[in-house]
Amino acid sequence: MVKWIKVKNNTRIDINKIPIIEISDMRSEVKAFNLRPIGFFGKEWGFGCVRLFVILADDANADLYLSSSVFGNDVKSYESFTQEVPAFHIFEREFYEQFGIEPLHHPWLKPVRVNQDKYPFFEMEGEEVHQVAVGPIHAGVIEPGHFRFMCNGETVYHLEIMLGYQHRGVEDMMLKNPSNQLAESICGDSVIAYNTAYSQVMETLKAINISRKAQLIRKMALEMERIAVHIGDLGAISGDIAYLMGASVFGATRTLVINTTLEMCGSRLGRGFVTVGGVNYDPSEEVIDRAVETLNKVRTDVDRMVKTMLKNSTVMSRLEKTGTVSLEKAKDIGLVGMAARTCGVDLDSRFDFPDKWVEELGFTRKTMNLKGDVNARFKLRYKEIKESISMVKKILAKLKEYKNEPIIAEGVNNKLTPDSMVISIVEGWRGEVVHIAMTDLHGKMTRYKIKDPSFNNWYGLGLAVRNNGISDFPLCNKSFNLSYCGNDL
Amino acid sequence: MIMKLINLIILLFVPFLMMGLIKKTKSFWGGRKGPSIMQPWFDFVRLMKKDFVISNTTSAVFKITPVITFASVIFAGLFVPLASGSAIVNIPVGLIVFAYILGLGKFFALISAMDTGSSFEGMGASREACFTSIVEPAFFMVIGSIMALTGNCTFDSLGKILSSAGTYGILIIVFTALVLFIMLLTEGSRVPVDDPATHLELTMIHEVMILDNSGSDLALLTWANGIKMLLISSLIAYMVIPSNVSDFVGVLLYLGVIALLSVIIGTVESSMARIRMSHVFEFVFIMSSLALVVLSLVMARMFGG
Lengths: 489, 305
Fold this sequence. Notes:
heterodimer, A: alpha+beta, Beta Polymerase, domain 2, Cytochrome-c3 Hydrogenase, chain B, 2 domains, four-stranded antiparallel beta sheet, 17 helices, 42% helix, 18% strand, B: mainly alpha, 12 helices, 74% helix, globular
């Protein structure tokens, strides 16, 4: 009997071919597989039953393993996977919250997005331990999230993070009225990543092939987003350690990048750039030339500023050995994306699940030996900015070869292929953005699942600040720069 | 009489210019135009016009603290020699009164922060108290040494270092100025001790203690902080400006030194990151080491030969 099917990123999967196995079998299989989960979600399956889909990623071979299990309407619990594979902890909490099926012996089954006010926070006993509660409304103009610190003097013993204050029910909205506008509004700092993931899902479901030019433009836009946000984050890190010059220079440099995106598509954040069937804007040769020029300048400016900062001892003393996450812990809790790479876990879906361009344009994965501290997150951003700039330049040069290709597919049909599932993984600047869609036998979309990298990584921030000074928390937080709305959905 | 009037005006209004100049310097190094040098004054006027909100958990302590803090700074300021080396009120043992009156203001600032019951403000108060406990002994060691050297318990002794210690005096002045400069950064809550520009309540020291204050209360506290910076700067200015110049030149020199100090503070803030909180103590502790140097210099001069 087939227990798992092997599928690829961004291809149609026949729902009828997805195996259904016993939950206890699945639990032991998951443990034996030793792969990381990227999907663990339920769907109503008639008569009060719930079908649980589990997707594991085999990053080394660009494969995804998919299986499912059905809970009858009288089954309200199962033995939690988290005990065996800790990376499941957040997925099981989400599944419990959405379907009420309890993972037994889950180490800490707390809410993900709702009922925050009823939740009793973890407490430590002791005369000298004091609690500091921050948020959900913060002093800066940032998103809402509650942080509860257990401190002894200036040292943080434990940080508990409570999110969900921005829960908008995006997954349900996606079923009722799916659109590019909605997809790009889910997480405002990853507009291109979200919109690309959504568009890929829809294109696969509608069997649309997009032109090579459109593929290239999307890829370029994604890297532009990465450059802009990374530079902005370097500035924010400088600001948090009160290193004024860094904050000003990176702030100004970021503007150059987002203004280039503005020239290309009329929006600094890339809204409306990507659409189902291709892209909406075709950068002219003039715009491309200017973009290359700007990126060269950006490259020099960032280079100079980063080198100045790395030579400044006061800066280094703030960055080094602050907020460290060990490789072991990063693997255990299943960090993804940039945060994982800074700990030495080489996850990058651009290379793990490559498209044909990666080889054709000669993009290669370069790894860095990093220690998982704020310094690592600073340096990795610098490295990725440099790489992305060279990627964008290569793509822009390539674009000129496809001058006469259409940017948007003609005659797009609006009918979705019935009985299908699509998994679409896009490496946004923060990490993998996963969109999963399912249709029923009439071709109606019945489930839309979104996983932001922040969903995995928030717990990593909690671990990073342990045994650090509480005054270093904002710096650690900024170095991760996780999304609240991407987590809250 | 005219000089006292000028000094009173300086005491009250130069702090705004000083804060403005620091901001301007920081903007310059950041490659920006920055706000007008008068912006702190405009902010002050704006805050003065505003109503204030007082939390239900606070007691009378919280309400009277802004006034006490402000009054203590002004009161202490009356004894400090400002422009042209003349204090508004001359009293014996002015140095000691100065330090303790400022201490009174600090005490109320601390208990007012605790009074709000906020966990942030408690943290801020504990940090502030900790730094003060290092700053104060160092300040007294320096001042005590100089008083012993000149045999004079008023601020005049600061101006008599050169005449009573000769070439040693130059060294003593340099080290005393360094001690006072670190005190200025600490008490004025500047980088690298504190970050006056941050909005992150977990990393603040001074700002977090006044987090609950608003409107005219906040205006008074900001003003008081500016005056405190001016007073410490004035001590440095008094040491380095020669006393045998005319009043007019004296005022100009004084303003020049204050402006120079502001530019130095702004430059220091722009060129370095803020020190990690656990290392701030070490930085402030440099004061004590320097104070010991001053003490040994004075000893060498008095008993050495």
